[in-house]
Amino acid sequence: MVATSPSSVRFEPRVLERLSAFVAVHQEMTLSSATSRLVDEALRAREHPLITFKDGPAGRRARVVGGPDVWEIIGAVRSVRKAEPELAGDEALAVVVETSGVPMPLLRAALAYWGDYPEEVDAFLNRAGAEAVQAQAAWERQQELLGG
Fold first, then answer.
1. DSSP string, the chain
2. CA-closest candidate to residue 33, choices 4, 8, 55, 57
3. pLDDT of residue 68
4. Closest alpha carbon to 112 in 34, 47, 25, 28
5. Cross-strand partners of 52
6. Percent of the chain with pLDDT over 90
7. Tell me: the pLDDT tens digits for 20-52?
8. What is the DSSP string of 80-108?
């Protein structure tokens, strides 16, 4: 559990009304946790203007504006580096641009975000990798049963 510091914040009435409506929709959150998350994301977006945040089945995650999730981009870069270890820097990124269609500025934005928040991004990558291994094993079992 993360230790927090109590803090008193005064909101303008319209901001508090919108924040309360947000909490009503996201019933798993308290006013305090919603405020903390939204302020954290606003500060991160200010630090990384091409990054936004999105909810999904895997949880809330960072993504490049108009593009894929940051973890997907970092995974693609790692995949290129693993497949072609002689490529480095811009050469490796050029392969990701070519294969993904994600423009270079968005790749660099994802790299910059990962540089500041590697644990968060790597956690998504690790979870996706584990799910891929489980899916592959399930498929192989099915193929074995079907005689394929």
1. ------------HHHHHHHHHHHHHSTTS-HHHHHHHHHHHHHHHHHSTTEEEE--TT-SEEEETTS-BHHHHHHHHHHHHHH-TT--HHHHHHHHHHHH---HHHHHHHHHHHHH-HHHHHHHHHHHHHHHHHHHHHHHHHHHHHT-
2. 4
3. 94
4. 47
5. 63
6. 72
7. 999 999 999 999 999 999 999 999 999 999 999
8. HHHH-TT--HHHHHHHHHHHH---HHHHH
Q: How far apart are CA 93 and CA 89, in angstroms?
A: 6
The per-residue b/e assignment along 123-145, b for 16 or more CB within 10 angstroms, e otherwise, is ebbeeeeeeeeeeeeeeeeeeee
Retrieve residue 91's tokens: 């050469």
What average pLDDT does the structure give for the chain? 91
Structure token pair of residue 107: 């790749």
Residue type, 71: W
Q: Quote the pLDDT of residue 14.
A: 96
120-133: average pLDDT: 86
Residue 81 burial (10 A CB sphere; 0-12, 13-18, 19+) = middle
How much is the pLDDT for 31?
Answer: 92
Enter the pTM of the model: 0.83
